[in-house]
Predict the structure.
Amino acid sequence: LNLSEGGCMVSCSDADQLTNDVHIQISGIAAKIACAVVGRTSVRLNLQFTEMLPTSIVDRLSSRRF
């Protein structure tokens, strides 16, 4: 739903059943990204990345999706 260097918001039908530490895979990035859940609803997660993404990667991904 949104993406920045420090985190993202994602839609997830089982968001309330996940732990507070998750790994996600973003199309266009080869590695899994470790995240901490910093906010949630039953269908959305606000995630904070454990390591910042480079701005160049965020810009490239955002231009294709948002």
